[in-house]
Design brief:
- This protein has about 190 residues and is mainly alpha-helical.
- The chain has one domain: Orthogonal Bundle (Jann2411-like fold), CATH 1.10.3300.10.
- It is about 45% helix and about 10% strand.
- It has 6 helices and 4 strands.
- A two-stranded antiparallel ribbon has the order 1-2. It has a two-stranded antiparallel ribbon with strand order 3-4.
- Strand 3 and strand 4 form a beta hairpin.
- It is globular and about 65 Å long.
- The N and C termini lie far apart (about 45 Å).
Length: about 190
């Protein structure tokens, strides 16, 4: 008799390419919290959001989240993904401003100079939002925001480290190959 074995549920974000700058890992992980064919929505319940955020580089300290917290994080995530997919759309950036207006923050400076946003409250969602905004600010200042892309097939966000900045898929081995096979099948079907 064959024994049915189920794979363990992976609470963490999908793996990133070796060429992804480490200072963007948390931001990209946050953006990839959306549901896909292989991964569930991470911000549907506070427990799943907490498990996911604990494996991201976003300064989440493990304190319990509420349903309102996960809703706030989902709104911010969706606004940021919209900005990745349509960076020239002012509505995407306005949505980010609206989503982050709920998190009281202050500018924290130190020798270097180093400048960072810090949540003013001790609320765990505010700390995550501040961390996401710090990484967004870093990406915008360094020009790396323009290198973020969404997969043409599954919409997973990735860092495009190609010289031509024309990468279309999160993984050529998976999504790129599947898209090419589907296109080939479509072309050959039309010829028949």
């Amino acid at each position: 008799m064959l024994k049915h074995v189920t794979a363990p549920i992976d609470d963490g974000p999908p793996p990133q390419d070796d060429g992804t700058p480490s200072e963007l890992h948390g931001l990209i992980d946050f953006l990839n919290s959306r549901a896909t064919a292989r991964r569930p929505e991470r911000f549907d319940h506070p427990a799943s959001a907490a498990a996911f955020l604990s494996r991201c580089a976003l300064d989440y300290d493990g304190r319990p989240l509420t349903a309102a917290d996960t809703a706030r994080l989902k709104v911010l995530r969706d606004a940021l993904v919209h900005a990745v997919e349509e960076p020239a759309n002012p509505e995407a950036w306005a949505a980010i401003n609206d989503a982050t207006a709920t998190a009281p923050m202050r500018v924290q400076t130190a020798v270097g100079p180093t400048i960072a946003l810090q949540a003013q409250s001790r609320h765990p969602a505010d700390a995550v939002i501040a961390s996401v905004l710090n990484q967004l600010t870093n990406a915008a200042i360094t020009g790396r925001w323009q290198r973020l892309g969404a997969c043409a097939r599954c919409r997973r966000v990735f860092y495009d480290n190609t010289r031509s900045h024309t990468r279309r898929w999160c993984s050529y081995a998976n999504c790129g190959n599947r898209a090419n096979v589907a296109a080939y099948r479509s072309r050959t079907k039309k010829r028949r």
